[in-house]
Design brief:
single chain, mainly beta, five-stranded mixed sheet, five-stranded antiparallel sheet, about 15% helix, flat
Length: about 180
């Protein structure tokens, strides 16, 4: 009786360990500043490399800005950045995450060189629900100052045929246009 009980517990633990979904979200190598509707915009791209949809996907982006207090304490302040779109009802292909650098942005008035000089980094987190397993998947990524590039835009990764069926071409995923 004890052996059967022990085998059931071990089987349950092994299944729970290996059945846990992984996010399999790909982040671009670089985060870029490019014009969008005439406003300089901080952008990065993510892609879903899972075989299934992720539903109720959401993304957050924060700038980690070095700060020295009046008492001389060196810290990194976390400033949440307002995004053009924080949610995606069904994340299947790609998503370009964008933060307009307008007057409300903590990056307003800073050049790329100043951002790099101050060693500002960017932390992003992604959360969604796997459609098949109905379990939450999540991941995060940090872009450091050297990952910031001025560009025109990311290269297109979506191709469509005559029947307007879109296919994801990940060969261009990390490429940018200067």
């Amino acid at each position: 009786m004890t052996g059967i009980f022990y085998a059931a517990i071990i089987t349950g633990l092994a299944f729970s360990k290996f059945a846990r979904p992984s996010a399999k979200i790909i982040f671009t190598n670089n985060i870029i500043i490019a014009p969008f509707d005439g406003v300089p915009t901080l952008m990065f791209r993510i892609a879903n490399s899972r075989d299934t949809h992720i539903i109720d996907a959401s993304v957050k982006l924060a700038a980690l800005i070095p700060y020295i207090s009046k008492e001389g304490h060196h810290i990194r302040r976390t400033c949440n950045l307002n995004l053009m779109n924080t949610e995606n009802p069904t994340f299947l292909l790609t998503w370009t995450v964008m933060h307009p650098i307008d007057t409300e942005s903590p990056l307003y008035g800073l050049t790329i060189e100043e951002i790099k000089e101050k060693s500002i980094s960017f932390s992003t987190s992604f959360t969604g629900i796997d459609k098949v397993l109905t379990q939450t998947v999540h991941t995060n990524h940090i872009y450091v100052a050297k990952d910031l590039v001025k560009a025109r835009k990311f290269k297109d990764v979506l191709k469509h045929d005559q029947e307007d069926i879109y296919q994801l071409n990940l060969d261009n995923f990390h490429l940018i246009e200067d």
